[in-house]
Amino acid sequence: MTDINTTRRELLIGAGASGATMLFAVRPAGATPEAMKTAIRKVIGEAKVSTGRIKLDIPPLVENGNTVAMSLTVESPMTAKDYVKGVHIFNERNPQPNVVTFHLGPRAGKADISARIRLSDSQNVIGIAEMSDGSFWSHEISVIVTLAACLEGTN
Fold first, then answer.
1. How far is CA 57 from each of CA 61, 103, 126, rounded to the nearest angstrom?
2. Alpha-carbon distance 15 to 22, whole Å?
3. Between vectors from CA 17 to CA 11 and to CA 21, what angle results, nearest 5°?
4. Can you give the pTM of this predicted structure?
5. Extents of the domains making up the chain
6. How many other CB atoms sit within 10 Å of the CB of residue 107?
7. Continuous segment of H or E residues that includes residue 33
8. Distance of CA 10 to the CA centre of its chain
9. Which of 40, 48, 51, 61 is 20 to 30 Å from 88 by CA-CA measure?
10. Which of 28, 30, 43 shows the shortest CA–CA distance to 100?
11. Consecutive 10-residue averages of pLDDT for the chain (155 residues)
12. CATH superfamily of this structure's domain 29-147
């Protein structure tokens, strides 16, 4: 039985001495255009997605995929009856197709978000706004990444 105060070094030395083999999982980028479509369907169900009302702003050419500036705005009065419930960002080639979800409400004042994301490769990025009336609106951007990020297990 391992003592609760055992250090990581002691655990690794003990595992090596006992002949135990340690395996480390390396996951390749799991998102594909099909995985992205599936992830979107999980969020919107069978609802129709219209173009407009949301503007996703990402530079079309990104030098380094490790930190990509992204901003988005959604046209909405943000009143108690008409507001943005959430914004979902999806991509085609990162390890996961869901980049981020922002939950909003009428007290947010306006739907204007800025963040930094990682992009593993050149790909399409889609922003989908979910409105309080149940409608969904989208904007898609094609981004070229010259130095990829999110590459697990590569040299």
1. 12, 19, 10
2. 8
3. 75
4. 0.76
5. 29-147
6. 8
7. helix 33-44
8. 37
9. 61
10. 43
11. 61 59 49 91 96 97 94 96 97 92 95 94 96 97 86 53
12. SoxY domain (2.60.40.2470)
